[in-house]
Design goal:
Layout lengths: L1 E2 L10 H11 L6 E5 L10 E2 L2 H16 L12 E4 L1 H7 L10 H11 L4 E5 L2 E2 L8 H20 L12
Parallel strand pairs: 2-5, 3-6
Antiparallel strand pairs: 1-4, 2-4
Helix pairs in contact: 2-5
Length: 163
């Protein structure tokens, strides 16, 4: 499990991730991710600026075009992995910047690991080290690089789980 250090997500929402992970696991594999976009399905609360909401919508559209479909919020920093899912995904990781969340989801899809989104409470935290413009551009370039490296075979995905 990991979560952002800024405390934007309530840690008590872990119970919801655990419950959905248990329901959705296939052969012990599952990734449960917090989502700030499923408020219609629950009574969770999301507080963010209009600029951030617009950029998230644009980034989601770009991510969908480049291959991660069916996930509405790839960037929420509240994710839970079964042991088997982690053993298959993390040894294959290449990216260390903000776009690593998308690489996780691409690798989960490659390994046929179910990904379940779970509504979480989230609020924007002042003092973020992220530059909305600079880091959004960098994320777009990084995502393109990730997709190209996998498509061109520069990066290989191991089929076996690592201990």
């Amino acid at each position: 499990m990991f979560c952002d250090a800024d405390g934007a997500t309530r840690f008590s929402d872990i119970d919801a991730l655990l419950a959905q992970a248990k329901k959705s696991a296939i052969e012990g594999r599952v990734v449960a991710i917090g989502s700030r976009n499923n408020q219609a399905l629950s009574d969770t609360v999301v507080e963010r600026s209009h600029v951030r909401a617009f950029l998230q919508w644009g980034f989601h559209t770009y991510v969908t075009i480049l291959g991660v479909r069916g996930v509405r919020d790839t960037q929420c920093g509240f994710k839970l992995f079964s042991r088997e899912a982690a053993r298959r995904i993390f040894p294959n990781m290449h990216v260390e910047r903000f776009i690593f969340d998308v690489e996780i989801l691409l690798l989960a899809r490659y390994h046929h690991i179910p990904v379940v989104e779970v509504p979480v409470n989230w609020h924007e935290v002042a003092g973020s080290k992220m530059s909305i413009v600079r880091d959004s551009i960098q994320m777009a370039l990084d995502l393109l690089a990730v997709r190209l490296n996998y498509m061109l075979g520069n990066w290989k995905v191991s089929q076996t789980a690592k201990d």
